[in-house]
Specification:
This protein has one domain. Helices cover 80% and strands 5% of the residues. It contains three helices and two strands, in the order H-H-E-E-H. A two-stranded antiparallel sheet has the order 1-2. Helix 1 runs antiparallel to helix 3. The model has no long low-confidence stretch (mean pLDDT 88). This is Membrane protein. Keywords: Membrane, Transmembrane, Transmembrane helix.
Length: 85
């Protein structure tokens, strides 16, 4: 990763991945758990409505999945750009 254009490509891919992950996390935790909860009230999951489930469990599970996805994707980006450990 010697030239500046390769550095820019690497960091733009990194920032794009972070933005996508944050949008997904915000949509699931704030959107489904708070804003869209009245719309999800009729769907039952584990004895409670889907909006409550997202607020209590779903956002945490999605956050954990995003952590593993981010780590996997960053490892492949590092290999593509020659900056792996």
């Amino acid at each position: 990763m010697a030239d500046n254009s390769s550095n820019n490509e690497y960091w733009s891919a990194n920032v794009r991945l972070i933005k996508i992950s944050l949008v997904i996390w915000a949509l699931v935790s704030f959107g489904f758990g708070i804003l869209l909860r009245p719309l999800l009230k009729g769907i039952s999951v584990g004895g409670t409505d889907l909006g409550f489930w997202f607020a209590q469990q779903g956002s945490i599970l999605v956050f954990l999945a995003l952590i593993f996805f981010y780590a996997w994707r960053m490892n492949s980006l590092d290999r593509e750009h020659g900056v792996e450990e």
